[in-house]
Each structure stands twice: as C-alpha cells, then as structure tokens.
C-alpha cells in the first residue's frame, strides 16, 4: 500500500461541475457512437475509445453546489430536448424583480447618499413614478437588459449535475469518480502530464497513519482542469506559471444559500426570480429563486470588497431573510438545505493561461464568470463545450495536446465566442466597487448600458490589503476599549467576535424558530449534512503561525461558512475542524494577512480534501 | 476457495431528509430519484468482509448482487467500485424500502441462479443482517432457503476460516453476548452486523478494474419482477423526533448539564 500507484489514461479531468458537464457531453458525442462503439481508438487501449476519467472531490457528483438562475443558452444549444419538467427542481423563469431593500433596524452601515435616498423613499412612499414602496423596499421599475434572464431557467446545479453525469457515464465515454480529490498537477519539464490524487490513510498533518495509501498518479496526454475558483490543481498551475500580464485574482464573493420549503401562504409562483440590493449591508446582494413543488433557493453574496473584517455570511443571511419584504413570503417555511461556495468575481481580469502543454482550463477557474450579468453556469458550460469540440478536432487529426494546438483550437473558439464578447463588456464593470458601493452600482450601470465601452475606473487591491482593522471599521460606533473587552471575552470562550459586535451596533438578536431560523451548527446538521471521510489530512492550514498569533482580525474565523475555523483560547493560531468544513474556500481569500512567499496570496493554505456537503437539493 | 455473493441494496444517503409519501404505485419516498444513494451500510460491511476473505483465501471471487434502479446503481458504483474488487450483477428494480422481503429474495434468487460459473458447493452468501431501509432481517434467510442452504448465521461480526475450509462464526445474540458457531464449510449464509473491518480507502485502480465489468453489467440488467402491491402498509411514519430550541444566556454549563440529565431521567 505504501507504494504510489501510477495509472495511464488518455484524458484526465479534475472537478465535475457545469463546465466539465459541457466538456464531457460534447466529447462523448465525438468519440463514441450512439451504439457505444468507438469513433476513434485509444492510444492506450486499442479497440476502445479514448479513455477519459474525471475525478471529483465531493462525495457525489451533485451534493455540494447551488441553486442558480441562467439564460441557459449554451446548455440548451447542447441539449435542445432539455425539458425543465423532466429535471427535478427546474422551472422556466416566469417573473423577475430587482428590489432595493431599506434597513428597518438602522444597524446597516450606509453611506450618507444612501441614507438620504432611504429617507426620500420613506417620505415619498409610493409616489415615485412606476415604483412600489412598501415593507421597507422599493421594487425597481425596470431591469437593465444586461441583468435580466428572460427566457432562462432556474434550477438546482446539484440535480442538473447528477443528470448530466449519469447521461455522460451511460454513453460509456467517460468515468466520473467522486470522493477523489485531485491534490496537484504533475508537472514535468514545464508540461502538465497528469494529476496526483490526495493521499489517504494519513493523520491531520498528512503523515502516514493506518491504511496509508499515497495518492495515485494519473498520467494523461491531456489534463482538463475544471476544479473551480479555489481548486488546488488550477491554483498550483497558476503558482507555477503566474497569471498573464495585467491579470489578477483579487475579486471574490462567498455565496451562502438555503433551500426552503415555502409556507402554504406564500403566493410566489415557480420561476419567480428576485434579486435584492441594499440590505443587510449595501455591499451584500441577495437572491430568491422559486422552484417547483413550493421550494425556493435563496441566499446572499458577501463580496471581497465588503470592507468589514467581521464578515459573517450566516448571520447576515438570517437578517436578510427576515427583511419585511422577504419575511412575508418566508415566515413559516422550513430550511431543508444549506451551503456556501466561493465565486471568482474577476471574470476576464482573472483569466489564467487557458492552455499549456498538456492541459486546458475550463469553467469558473478559467475566468468564465460574468460579473456584469451575474451569471456563470451557462458560461462555464459553454467553455466546456468549446474545449470538447477542440479536443475532438485534435483527436480526429491525430495531433498532440500542445500549447500551440490547444491555442489554435480551444482558445481560438473561446476568443470568437459570445462568451468572450460578453466577458469583454463585463471586464471593467465591477471595478468601481473598489471605491465603494455607490460608485460600484453606478459603474456597473455605465458599463452595462454602454456594453463595456465606458466604465468607472478604480484600482484593485488584494483582499488582505483592503480589510481594515476591527477598530477602524467600527470607529465612531464601538470604542477601542470595548472592542478589546469583547475580544478578550470571546477569545476566552473560544467564540468568534461577530455576534457580540453585531449585537453591539444594533442588529437585533435572531429569534430561533427551529425551522428556518436555526443556529449555524444546526444549519450544518439539518441543512448542510456536512461530513468528512476519515484518513485525509486537514485541507485548511495556516502558512505562518506567528502571523496568525499577531493577527487581530482573524477574518478566517468570522467568515467561515461552517464554523469549521474557530478561536483558539490557548494560542493565536485558529483551530480547524474538517468535520464542519463546507469546502467553500472563503478562508483562502478572506484572510487579512499576506503570504510571506507571494504578496497576492494570503496566510491560509487550502488544499484538496474529501467530504463536505451532502445535499440533494443544492 | 470461496465463491462469495454479497447481496447489497441501495438506500438514500442517510444524511438526507426522508419523507414517506403514498403514490399510485404504493408507498415511496418523496423525491426518491433525486436523493443521492449509498450502498446499504449493513451490506457495505458484508462487502468489505467478503473482499478481505477473498484476498486471504486464494482463488476466491466476489460478486455484488444489487437490486435497485439502474441509473442510481450506476452513480453509486462510482464510489463503491473503488472500495473492493468485485463483479457487479444487477437486478433493475425498486429500492424504495417499501418492497416485501419475500419478493426481494425471489428476485435475488433469480439473479444469483443466473450467475455463470458460480459453484454452489463453494458458495457463501453475504449480506446485511438488517437494512437501513428494510429492517425485517428476513430477506437473506428466505434467499438462503431458496438456494437450498441450510447453515444460516445472523448478526455476524467475525468469520474465521480454518485450514480445512471450516468456518468459525461469531454472532451477536441477546444481552450483548456473542455466540461462536462452527460449520464444516460452504455453502452458508452470513448476515453481517458491522464486522471488524474499517471502510477501505478509495483505490482508483480497483475502481478502474471493476469498471470494466460494471458498465456491461448495468447494460445487461434485466428488470426484476418485484410486485409493488405485494405488501400493504397500514401507515408509514418516520421515527418521531422532538426538537426544542431554547436560547439561554449566562447559564452555567453545570446547570445545562443538570437539565439534560433530568430530562433523560424523566
């Protein structure tokens, strides 16, 4: 068992999400006939089609993702017979709203112009032409064309992934292995020659333990990397090659969401899509998608440019759900699922080298997310389809997967696609959020309405440089002495600071109802069903422990989506509990301290790990 | 050498929220096809024990016989096939937990009878003593009778094979005690409790080797004639759970502990 196994295959893939779904669906059609016979032969197994293996980190191929709204253009192009009625938790969009939420509590940290606008809304009520003001909210009279998803679908990526994965495997063209974290690319002579899987039978520190089995090396002529925004294989390639000049990966968000059984009195129809802005903090966007069978997927995005060191998504999510505009629909509902994930919000600014000798990148980790239209699933799928077409072309021509050949086929397709055109329009649309919420919204509108010709320029900074100290953030609201006392009390009790500080500045206590408003730990138990298989190393570690000891913000603890990173009463280095980790990756970019080896990175290390969420409804 | 047939059904991932609903075809689970599946945890212990036995007794072979919807089995095999070497044999049928054990045993018997090269004199039938979805504990016993096997053991935690092929079996009995039995050898039916082996790590090479036979087995799977109306349920409910959340502040831990102790006592 102690010897590292090596296996050869034709194509190895890492991460099964929408991008990989698009890639494998397209590839299957090119390498296998409908009767299962090979269109072309494998170099390794003559008589068989090219051998394609995909390794997925999670325990199943659809247990840890999210509800989405999507125009589904690329998905429908690939799957023209897709009938929403045949896919669980899928509905055509029937109604869309963008709603500005006011703060009913006065605890939100709003800039002066927003406060003035809020006062005007309250004063004038519904007398704004074309606007409805009630329940501390203002429904926008119109949705900018770049934001609307008219004609699209809202669905569960988990269910969609399961369905796509099953269809792919039924063709016999590819195998998708879950519970198989890809630890790192195998790079030899500047060429990617495969993937190393994570070691098993190791202790927390990664040292051999009972049933030690070194991660297998899967060697292939092509490695397809689709492991998302925090995937270790994609990030290792970025570390080795750097990013193209002028590109950066400094903009992120954590999306935290729940799936809710809506109460009987809720009038919202399946296919209703509501986007919210303005509350619980101006920087936090919200969404509510109504699915069939009285289900809804709803949640918030907490972005990297929300300059609050105690940025707990969970409590903000609970305040957001209880906003009068939403609570009238949700009160009496039951939480059935919970989850979180990192979104890579740089779009094309964060695009890595898409190809190199022996590898290609697809999906969110390749910069497909469109931050102007607020969409990424269809874009990820499209990138996978384009790579699928390119790979089939190269296989047909018998050409090797070199950087040059992949550039001529895959990258050329991407550059000529709608994906690229829209990414260019969106490229600078979010820049102004670096200067604040109002410039950000105005900048987005300018970019969107001029199709990217104009923007509100602003310089970006790594997240760790943006995060202020706690004292700075609460200046004028909580004194330094009081913060010191709260910090001392919370540290002694092993607690995060966010509850005490949010209570202190006027956020009302959460009145748990045991159904929808539940403790964070209950969300993990009831809605998250988080689990970790034994025998893997801790995938979250801290690079320099002295840096942690000196850190006063500990944003990793405040931002952790699963309370997996907690205060250490005996030492400044936070504790990590793999059993509670959702694998959202928020700690990786929320850390307020730079790495000593790379100023663009932080002091948190996020490696490959098994486990995480088990939900059929995400 | 042994020919070990492991009977293992599929059940919803135990982390999911289950809700029984009555449909036109009888009782089932709400959104059953949406739920991720796992190999029945009881049967998975049997599979690990079978793989261990096959590794230690030269020439032995393991078949995993599974009754379940083909599409769910295909997805599940991508996890299970990495755990241990076996040949999959599929009966395409319901796995809702509301099927009758006699019907299931009949279907399994038909499938096992059709396994080419299976030597009845070397046959060990393994399975779960109980099931995470069907707790009657009778399926294996009925199957054993149909196969004409007289030696049945239930609640097995340990199997030791003698040099002469004899079997020493440690079974759970009432009162937390064990019973040690011996029999001369195969054929025998063993309904496993938890066994003694940990879950094996995922071995991608084992998975790849199994996969050569998994896809053909799924394609060849015949529908299993399991009648949905063979059993009538008067009522179906989940085990009652009481959940009371109360927010307290400034309450010492020993007071909280005492409250829990008092609640348990009452």
Automatic annotation (TrEMBL), chain A:
Transmembrane segments: none annotated. Residues 538-570, 572-601 form the 4Fe-4S ferredoxin-type domain. Binds 1 [4Fe-4S] cluster. The keyword ATP-binding does not apply. Keywords: Electron transport, FAD, Flavoprotein, Iron, Iron-sulfur, Metal-binding, Oxidoreductase, Transport, Ubiquinone. It comes from the Bacteria. The keyword Glycoprotein does not apply. Accepts electrons from ETF and reduces ubiquinone. This is Electron transfer flavoprotein-ubiquinone oxidoreductase.
TrEMBL record, chain B:
Gene3D superfamilies: HUPs. It holds the Pfam family ETF. Keywords: Electron transport, Transport. Residues 37-204 form the Electron transfer flavoprotein alpha/beta-subunit N-terminal domain. This is Electron transfer flavoprotein subunit beta.
